[in-house]
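User: Here's a chain of 804 residues. Predict its fold as tokens.
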Amino acid sequence: MKKSIRVQICNERFLSRFGLDRVLLQAAHYFRTQGAEVSLAALRYDQTLVDSLGFKVEKVIVPEGLDMQATERQTTHHMLTSWLKQQPDVVMVGGWPFFDLASKSPALGVPSCYPDVGAVPHDGLSENATNVQQELRRIRALTLPFISSVLPISDFIRLSQTERDRGHTQGVRTVLIGTDHLATAPAEPADTHDVLLAPLRDIKATGGKLIINLGRFEGEGYKNSFTSFTTLRNLRAAGIDARLIVLGRASEFTVPPDLAGAVLPIGNPSDGGLLAVMREADLGLTTSLWEGFNLPLAEMQNIGKPVLAFVAGAHSEVVADPWFLCANVDQMALKAELLLGADADKVPSRPLQALARYAGRLPWSATLENWWQETVTLARHTASPPPTPTGRRLVLVDLSNSCRDPANSGVIRVSRQLTKRLQRHPALDVVCVRWDNERYSYSLINPEGSHLANYSGPQDYHGMFYDPATAHIQVDRLLYAPDPRLPLAPIMFMPEICLDGTLDSRMRWARDRNMFVSTILHDLIAYYHKQYCTLEVIDGFASYLPPVLHMDQIITVSEVSLTDLRRYANERKAELPLNVRAVWLPAQFSNVPRHRPTPVPAGPEIRILCVSTIEPRKNHRRLVEAFGRLVRRRPDLSLRLTLVGNRYVGADELAEQISAAEREGIDIEWRGVLSDQELLAEYAASRFTVYPSVFEGFGLPIMESLWLGKPVICYQREVMAELAQPGGCLTTDVLDVDALSDAMERLATDDILLARLQSELAARSMSDWEDYAMDMGNLLYGLGNPYPTPAWKPQVREGVSACD
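Assistant: Prediction complete.
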């Protein structure tokens, strides 16, 4: 069975008055008769009208107060989000605010079509109206180069605007619009417009001549409507009892005293009423100095009535014969006098014959068929899904903590290493940013005093352009700078934990710019295990966790953290976003290649290493106590415990405990914060490591130790058990000082156990930062993307999956 083409037609509005919105509704109806599935999208519409036609409308919600460009971006964001459920095969747009969508949709495999009606000239417009038109032209120039097909409604529009704004002629074809919609309107009762027509018929009955000024009456600007008064005055001076019918109310313009009674304002009649007035008129005038097409000119000629127009715009393409074109107002008056006066028989026969043949010259059926065939061609020649990637994606990475922290704790290490690799992801453009609490906005990172590049962190190339004077707008400029073909909304990525109470504000900043928001959730320890945390951290988590539930994407570092997240959401009776999953952190230590297990360092000393920040849940107190018991129990062993980690909560108590142990002759050294090279030396000198932490989101030091070929003693529960299961770890109850002491003794003395653990860790498959960044980058790239399957795969690197 042949698949129907899905077409979505988008316009700012769909209202009942004839105009572009009604033209597009005609197209929707015609496309449906050809077997297409048609839907509409608009900012506003006449519900009764669209219901009567049986169309579904996607109402685009746009916040008040946005400028034209921001409205375009918001509209695109809304539409692409709606396409996640079902996207069309082709999208047809009527112009603003759907230009941006039409320029980006082809990259998503949805070709776009734009019937170009042009942008009006600025002459005579108010300052506000001029600004609007100038912005419209700017938006056109930014987007028309990337729209699949542009169908200008006249050669005049094509040459003067379409090709200039597009910059090339590919995909451009003139399709003149139809003009016979009035003739094909439903028949009305004969007396429907008697009240409107009665005074006009009375004038004709006494020999008067009726002239109609076609189009809305505008005294300023390109419509040039007051020129019709000059023509009327000249005709009356020539002895012709002419009256001028004006589409407008008397209050909208001032009639010169000498023409009082000769100008007939009739308001804004319906389509049927206007057709009836045209039939009563003897002559039409169009005084406009610019028209992309001029529909009223064609409509009146369709019923055999002559119309005079200036040589301007698309008039030469629409007028029945060149004779009806006028070089100036004097020539218009002379030709009008010839058509209406006693010498009407002197009018050349050629233009009158052309006028008689005009009816049916521009049928709507031909226009709609041309548009339909263009739609079919676009749909048939577009692969779905697209064979090529959908463009690069801009990702802002919030590194507010990493740029300030001189140390390299777990979350900071993850943020630095991941960002460094994301910068190399083939589908992402990564920009490092920080939150400015004073301006409540994001800015680039000031390279002076920044610690972002510490510990092999990322090089902040954008930060080189940091300017204190414009820091608050530099990020906005980057957001608005991507290639217009880029279809995917940018992402605010938050790999850190925000405990200063500003997460709501940070997310609001991103939402205001139509960004998706993604985060790494490391753990919920400060919520479920408050006894291990300070009041400051507990209070910070209370403001941090609720907004996390409203992220577009949450990536936890372990299944344990994911389970805690689901528990938290259930307790709050909140729904999690669709994009929630666990991705293990990598095992790789900094930039260091994976190490094979090596023989135990020579010499009598048995060195044990513990790498962990100093805080209560890390369980250093029990570790020091367990090590002391081991030393007392085995005085025959030369044991040394080295602690590496930054000072946080509990540091003073630990320092006192270590001092007491040293006074007793127990060999414990706390080295604080080390460089990567210094830490590598400590790993190399150690027989094994111990990680006594009770609660973790992941436990990065466990995996880093295994990466460097060192077995680990860790907790037999929580996420530590999840990490230990594939091998290389000796698990125990770290809450039991004796059990922890026994585990250290076993691994310090049992060479067979050590060899078995070394063999297990050598056989383990462990990812590095490149693997992790590729997986994370693909998840970011896929957020809100109808084609999330990445076209990029990580390169296979020897020695990463397992050691030989």
